[in-house]
Amino acid sequence: MSDRLTPGVSAGLTWVVAERHCTRRGDHDIFSTPNLVHLIEDAAIEALAPYLAEGQGSVGSRVEITHVAPTLKGAEVTATATVTEVDRRRVAFSVLATDANGTIGEGTHERFVIDLGAFDAKLRGLAS
């Protein structure tokens, strides 16, 4: 991991809310909380990507969010992940998700940078 990864680094990612991202409430298909978490994680992965060495990846270890407003199917949702702390392999983020009406979710997320070869070996051991 590059030492250029410092607090303030951020990335955003936008999804158009499709049926597969939704749960049904009454007559409405709305963006589900599990998919909000997925989008937030993907934004954090995007923020980390330019700073990882070949053979490195990351895994999520913690997500704390509030999902404060609904978003209807067909709307755009953007998640932004901003690095707040780098402690060896642990990277902490503040996260914010918005749609055209404003904030729909916010919180924190934490990822650990991993060696993909070692992680693959560990997973193969679990599958045995």
Molecular structure report:
The protein is an alpha+beta fold and 128 residues long. It has two helices and seven strands; from the N terminus they run βββαββββα. The chain has a single domain, classed as Roll (Thiol Ester Dehydrase, Chain A). The strands form two sheets. Strands 1-5-6-7-4 form a five-stranded antiparallel β-sheet. It has a two-stranded antiparallel sheet with strand order 2-3. Strand 6 and strand 7 form a beta hairpin. It starts with 9 loop residues before the first strand and ends with a helix. The mean pLDDT is 97.
What brief labels describe this structure?
128 residues, alpha+beta, Thiol Ester Dehydrase, Chain A, five-stranded antiparallel beta sheet, two-stranded antiparallel sheet, 2 helices, globular
Give the helices and strands, then pairings:
Layout: E1 10-16, E2 22-25, E3 28-31, H1 33-48, E4 56-67, E5 76-87, E6 90-99, E7 102-115, H2 116-127
- E-strand count: 7
Q: Helix fraction?
A: 10-25%
Low-confidence stretches: none
CATH-level-4 superfamily name: Hotdog Thioesterase
The chain-level structural class is alpha+beta
- Determine the number of helices (DSSP H or I, runs of at least 4 residues): 2
Biggest sheet statistics: 5 strands, antiparallel
Question: Based on the structure given, which CATH architecture is correct?
Answer: Roll
Q: How many angstroms does the end-to-end distance come to?
A: 30 Å
Strand line-up across the major sheet: 1-5-6-7-4
How much beta, percentage-wise? over 45%
